[in-house]
Amino acid sequence: MTNHWIDFKNADVVLAIGGNNAENHPISMKWVQEAKNNGAKYIVVDPRFNRSAAVADIYGPLRSGTDIAFYGGLYNYIIQNKKYQEDYVKNYTNAPFLVAESYSFSDGLFSGYDASKGKYDAKQWAYQIAEEVVWDTAGAFAWVNKPGTPAFTPPVYKKAKTDPTLSDPRCVWNLMAEHYSRYTPELVSSITGMPQDRLLEIYEAYAATGEPGKAGTILYAMGQTQHTYGSQNVRAMAMLQMLLGNMGIAGGGVNALRGESNVQGSTDMAMLFHIIPGYNPTPAAATHPTLGAYLGVTTVPNGYWTNRPKFIVSYLKELYGDYATLANDYAYDMMPKLNGKNHSHISMFEQMDTGSIEGLFLWGQNPAVGGPNCSQERRAMAKLKWMVAVDLWETETAIFWSDKANVDPATIDTEVFLLPAACHYEKMGEVANSGRWIQWRYKAVEPPGDAKDDLEIATEMVLKLKDLYEAEGGANPEQITKLSWDYLDADGHADVRLVARAVNGYTVSDGKPVKNFTLLGADGTTACGNWIYSGYYNNVDSLEPQDQATGARNNEDKPLDDGMPAIGSYLGWSFAWPVNRRIIYNRASADADGKPYNEAKAIVKWDGAKWLRSDVPDFGYTKVVDGEAVAIPPNKTAFMMNAEGVSRFFASGNADGPFPEHYEPFESPVDNQMSSQNINPAITIVESAAATRGTPDKFPYVMTTFRLTEHWQTGQLTRNLPWLVETMPKMFVEISPTLADEKGIVSGDNVVIQNNRGAITAYAMVTDRLQPFTIGGKTVHQIAAPWHWGYGGTCAVGGIANDLTPNVGDANTMIPEYKAFLVDIRKQEV
Amino acid sequence: MRYIQRQSAFARGLHWIHTIACLSLFATGLMLFIPQVAGAVGVATLNGARLVHRVMAAIFIGAPILGIIINPKGFKHFWKSMVFKWDDDDKEFTKKFFPYLLFGAKQHMPPQREQKSGQVVADGAIVIFSILISLTGIVLVWPATFGGAGSAMWTWSLLLHDVSMVLLSVLLIAHIYIGAGIFKPYRGMGRLMFGDGKVSETDALYHWGTWAKEELRKGDKVTTA
Amino acid sequence: MAETAIKYDSSKCTACKGCQVACKQWNQLPSPLLAEEYEFTKSFQSPLDLSPNTWLIINFSEVKQDIGIDWNFMRNSCFHCTEAACEMACPVGAISHKDNGAVVIDEEKCIGCRYCVASCPFSVPRWDEARNKTFKCWQCFDRTSAGRAPACVSTCPTGALEFGDRDEMVAAAKERVAELKAAGFTKAELYGETELGGLHTIVVAHRGLDAHGLKRDPKIGVTEFWQLLKPLGGIAAAATVGGLGFSFLMSAKYKRGEFTYDEATDTVVEKEVEK
To answer: Residue B168: inside a domain, yes or no?
Structure first.
């Protein structure tokens, strides 16, 4: 989230789209309700009338996978009706930036498309360059000359030409207005299936937040991301917030409601193949053979990311300790490098299927139920030599080989281990919530039986591997033997507090924690496991969590400076990364002169001599001159993580275009009404997905998956708990009465849902919560099923919805398209 | 002095079996009817009492049914005696009933058949309310069969069971008062149930004049002792 | 102790069932362990009804609209009536009012007669065959008597459930109804202020009592008459005994001769007898 849970209460309009916050994030409603109590409107846009819709002021039904059409129409409405926050757009976005002539768009394709590769050349989506700015290595960038700093070629900042009047036809603003002028209400209604009057009602209500001083917030979840254009959906929301001046303000922002309590923490810690901790790119063998090359290529030429070398060297120092020196590139060679192939979830299972991955370690993951096209994933797992599942329960994955999974165990040679793990009440550690708050949790009870803390399991394994590599050698033994694993207490057990301090970062010479990441160096004097967390565990006198920022429990809503409003930041409660900032990009909450757009909910305010703050400012607001802090007067750099210093309507960093454009899902019942490009032209389709792609003649119904309040993910934590099972005991599929009539199905019937990937059975729940859509004049039925059930356990078993979902991913992230695909449905013959 | 055999051994046996069942049902039922009693005796006693209530209820219902099966003639006779035409004697009896009960020393009644008009009314009421209390009792024991404890059927059964109980209690008290001969005009009639079931000629002629004359004429039930 | 009440505001309820589960957890009410023991309810309402081991559920009902539905939720549990039919009906005094208004079954005293089940106008108490006792919500009296809110209230994320002084809850509910009416929920109604002498669960029904399935003007019904029967029965019995006693006294001087019958002449002769 750019903002945080409590901040929802500051909104004037709350838009929940592609997320079902009342059901899947129940606590969110505490704050949405508070906003409503203060007069806010709550809008829910979803294919299903869900429990969020039940308490919404306005509900808009939208066919799965048509969000970009919805946003495109909304931009068009805002621009046509001049509802945008003009001051904000001009000062804090790249609207005035001029785009190179190489950029063009025609019939669903952006310029630079190579049809043979199915890829774009993003270089064609560049700005017109005004000047090239090189780093001042004598001044601001003098740190690159410090002894110990690895040599690299500083990047050159290509400063763009701008037209502050927004009149140049090549400025981003005009290109954008032109691009979205195609998204008329008629067309959007015809694509999304949302009746036009309802569409306009929602547009009007949300666009009203473009008025300076008004705030609109967007709450979203997997309904936005799990599409072949999921990243563009997210970008589309950011663009909407920029248009209306809703980014960086109290009650605004783009807020991802994370589906698991610590999934924010897991991305922060880079439980993904393409990044290393702190959102730094994973080194690639071809382009980053050396540390210098890595730093030269990946360091952003302007803005705060110019500090990347400091974070990387500190990270390497933490990983390899004393072994990491300038002489050996800070052990950069020890880092695993990308080999040019994709290693996302979908690809991993493709590689298991082809035999190039032989072993699998699953840590609290249950792909046998949770993966896309997961019967295919279960078949791929059968080709593994070994598999280790670390979990609280015997997951479906751990018994993928058993007759419960409807396979013959004799045919499977995979050796499977199940390591019992401790749950969160049984271990100490931290959890980062969606609002980036890193909250410390204490152990309440001992884990049962042989169950162990994950850290303990990892540590035992690392120490054993170290011994084995020491004794027996092998390929690149130093990768393991030289790994610093300095987290052991006197008894040789892992101590999570030591891990936390290492993540926070410390000075190498004395081991004392650094105050925050601004004190990290690229010269090997500091070590830091994850720069964005720096500051959360920095007490130099104590190792105890209650003495750290992350363990802080001051439940008082107090602004940083007197005279500023209390806006629900609770700065004394835990630690929000970065540097305890609760609302990021908060410079944009005030105009170019530092005057807050909304005084009552001001975050920062320039009083003529200094900045007044209610939250931690997200911009350079003081500098040290001759040992004294001096205030920096207002400038327009509200987005310092971007080289441009502004936010981007037009962005060249995506694989599938600088503007979000509507395409149909991989499997769709209709043709794209926006262009002749039916699906996102930049996606990669793995072989098994291509083989199972269904067409509407055989599979005419759109299906989506969803979660329920009563269950969690693949159901391990809930299907094994009778209290929760009782509240939602059986797998079901929601069907509109119209479709049910056509198919002769009544509520309670067993139905078979089928496509080329599989067939599952479920109980039919016939309900008016789902209604057929009219798409391009044609009736399109949508059905929906939860994905919580599986064959494991005894309390609640049922069909696996993900047996039907396609293993095709987003063009940028490869997140699977769980939320829109085609099926057929019929009553099960008895 | 002659005597008429009015109650057979079978009838007397059935009467006493039913009496025991009835009194036990009354006693155990009353425990639940009066909260103070229930509170005082405790859960264990109450549950014991409820068990007794059920067993006795089975006897209360079962004994008459069994009696009818074993002795259909007797039932037929009883049934006939209950069904009669309402004649002038009955009208006069009705008129004089309460004066008779309250001023027994002065009031005399017209001659009666085997069952007095009052008896027919009282016994009829007992029969009807016994059937009602039995049927509602059955509903109460098996609520699930009758739509659950919250169903209207069950709730009304509960009410009617208790209404029946109150009415039966009143009738029972009156029955004891008269039948056991506490009421002076009936003094000595205890023999009918407490003894060998005979009634003396003089009592029979006084209470059931019409019937007594018939029996004395027939003579088959007449003895001298 | 002042009277307290739970306030349920349907307009703030998201039917997350947190209350339903918290109730089971705090009161340690078991749920079935095997999949075969569960049924598909065809609804988000699950279980469909209260039971000896489920003292609170959220009811769901759907009313189709032009776009979407009205999804009406209602908290289904004990209302803790001031004039509590269950308490009246209980033959053993096992059901009583606590000072704060909570109506509580004393499991020690309960004999499983189900009279309360039959009496409750809301069908709340549920009898358990195995234990032969009846169970229902007790407004977490163990918690409230220790100054805490009931488990359901303390787990509610949206403030749909609140607990506090009854007068304050009623006042807040009235204010909320007015707010909702102004916001377009013209059928919004308050429930529990006066019903059955005043309930200790106050409800704000934003789409009206009927939409949320609340019983308008609930009555104790036959239970009241049934309870009246107890004194009436006593009076009837006493009157009978008294009347018969009078009769006994009045018949003390009763005297008659000895009758004999002469079949031949068909005459009855009365002969004076000496005592």
So the answer is: yes
